[in-house]
Design goal:
Blueprint lengths: L2 H29 L10 H24 L10 H24 L2 H22 L10
Helix pairs in contact: 1-2, 2-3, 3-4
Length: 133
């Protein structure tokens, strides 16, 4: 498995564990209230699971599984940029939600959108009909 795929999959699993831990704490708090402020972590919980786990896992597997064709110039830098932008965006959105700063949320969403664009630019030449080299 390529190094970038390893990083993306491992990072997505860290987001999965973190998101599930936050969710478990919120669920336990619902049954036996011990920290009412835990509910402020709901947007962070959703961001980590929806974007951090699922999107990043999909990107990591796509980077690994999409074919590489002869004569194709490597565009791995775009995929690494997507990895950095996606994680920066996730943390910016989470911090913006916790701090109540809409500018942080907007900046994070822009970074996530840029990550998707960078990854699409990387993957586009790797998607061809069968039989085409």
């Amino acid at each position: 498995m390529p190094r970038l795929s390893v990083w993306m999959v491992r990072t997505s699993l860290l987001y999965l564990g973190t998101g599930f831990t936050i969710g478990a704490l919120m669920l336990a708090n619902k049954g036996v209230p011990f920290a009412p402020r835990l509910w402020s972590l709901l947007p962070v919980h959703a961001e980590m699971l929806l974007i951090g786990w699922t999107v990043q896992l999909a990107m990591g597997v796509a980077f690994w599984i999409l074919p590489r064709f002869r004569g194709e110039r490597p565009r791995e830098g775009l995929a690494w940029a997507a990895f950095a932008l996606l994680n920066t965006g996730i943390w910016a959105v989470a911090a913006g939600r916790l701090a109540g700063l809409s500018a942080g949320v907007i900046a994070g969403r822009v970074a996530e959108l840029a990550a998707v664009g960078a990854f699409a630019a990387h993957a586009w030449p790797r998607i061809k009909p069968p039989g085409v080299d």
